[in-house]
Write a structure and sequence with these properties.
By secondary structure, the protein is mainly beta. It has helices at 143-146, 339-342; strands at residues 2-4, 7-22, 29-45, 48-56, 67-76, 82-87, 93-105, 108-115, 155-162, 165-172, 191-201, 204-213, 225-239, 242-257, 260-275, 278-289, 302-318, 321-333, 348-358. It has a single domain (19-358), classed as Beta Barrel (Porin). The chain has 2 helices and 19 strands. The strands form 2 sheets. Strands 2-3-4-7-8-9-10-11-12-13-14-15-16-17-18-19 form a 16-stranded antiparallel barrel. Strands 5-6 form a two-stranded antiparallel ribbon. A hairpin with a 2-residue loop joins strand 14 and strand 15. It is globular, with a radius of gyration of 20 Å. 39% of the residues are buried.
Length: 359
């Protein structure tokens, strides 16, 4: 952080170089780079604050098919074929936004946020910003239940803060980003999200949210979704030099398919323990996924799971700049019906990575 006149400036980011091994018949090996760079500027305006934010990602350099990740699904590489057992790359422009807030009482304020792209008022923070798991280069397989809306090309949010509680309402472009990762897309703000948050203590943050997404899937025109989310975030220092963080979250997607409402849930728990330059992290997930078979769009929902554990060691290069090296191992859990396609009911995956971090 730094200052320039009335402005407070902040920058942070991370770039990971990853070797990815996903075993089994549907696995693959890949070296890829991913991460994000974020800049923020804020200044007083009236009795409130103006904030500008930009976030960029090197993910498009992976190529349109992203990287191998067993049990992940969502978005497309070419506009016609769904990405299955792969994590899609994020867009180069992850966020370009501005917000303004004004105090209306001793501990109350109103605010307005706009982004192209931006993040509507749905779900917990995106996984790369959650303290419990931000050191892992692996995307969660629950991404499209909990936080995939964090890059929406067109967002307008209004909110009210009352003490430790906040209520937000968003109108946004509900369609997921297309396979062109370097551009900025525009469309009508046709979808709605509502989120209620409450921080009972400095260490605990709760949220519940609902969203109606118009035509979100590129490969399923005319099919809308309703989503629900609830999460608990926790972080605190537990001893000198030690910090613990954790997230628990649930998400639901409801799709009206030929008059039948299909509800698919995801559950996720993640945690990290930091001690000076070491971080140990882990995540467990269960999803009900209808997109793991290439010839079915909304067929059977398969309950699958993943457990990942890893660690990273950072080496300080300068006051705000460090180099890190780490790795993780994942164990995937499949039902009997899917096991023959993967060659194993519990395929193993691993990632080794090095990173540069600005903090």
């Amino acid at each position: 952080m730094n200052g320039a006149g009335d402005w407070t400036l902040m920058a942070h980011g991370v770039v990971n170089l990853v070797y990815d091994h996903q075993s089994g018949r549907r696995g693959a090996n890949r070296v890829f780079a991913g991460g994000m760079l974020m800049g923020m500027a804020r200044r007083p305006v009236g009795n409130g604050t103006l904030q500008l934010k930009a976030m960029l990602s090197p993910d498009p350099l992976m190529g349109k098919r992203g990287y191998p990740l067993l049990l992940a699904s969502g978005e497309t590489a070419n506009g016609t074929d769904r990405l299955i057992d792969r994590q899609h790359p994020h867009d180069f422009f992850m966020e370009l936004s501005g917000s303004i807030s004004q105090n209306i009482g001793g501990n109350s304020s109103v605010f307005l946020y706009a982004g192209l792209p931006g993040e509507p008022a749905f779900g917990p923070p995106a996984f790369m910003h959650r303290e419990a798991i931000m050191d892992s280069p692996e995307a969660p397989i629950s991404h499209h239940w909990l936080d995939s809306t964090h890059i929406s090309f067109g967002v307008l949010t209004g909110g009210l803060t009352l003490g430790n509680a906040k209520v937000e309402v968003s109108r946004f472009n509900g369609r997921e980003p297309d396979e062109h990762r370097w551009d900025i897309e525009t469309a009508a703000l046709d979808s709605t999200a509502v989120r209620v948050s409450f921080n009972p203590t400095n260490q605990l943050s709760l949220q519940g949210s609902w969203g109606h997404l118009e035509n979100p899937e590129q490969l399923e025109p005319g099919v809308d979704q309703k989503r629900w989310s609830a999460s608990v975030l926790y972080a605190r220092g537990i001893a000198p030099g030690w910090k613990l963080a954790a997230t628990f979250a649930w998400g639901r997607k409801t799709i009206d398919h030929h008059g039948e409402a299909r509800r698919d849930d995801a559950y996720m728990a993640e945690a990290s323990l930091k001690h000076r330059d070491w971080t140990i992290f882990g995540r467990g997930e269960i999803t009900e996924n209808r997109e793991l078979l290439e010839d079915e769009e909304h067929g059977q929902a398969f309950r699958v799971g993943k457990v990942s554990v890893g660690a990273v060691r950072d080496f300080r290069l300068a006051e705000h700049f460090s180099f890190g090296a780490g790795g993780l191992v994942s164990l995937n859990y499949l039902p009997d019906d899917l096991a023959p396609l993967y060659g194993n009911q519990k395929p193993i995956a691993a990632m080794g990575f090095v990173r540069l971090k600005l903090d």
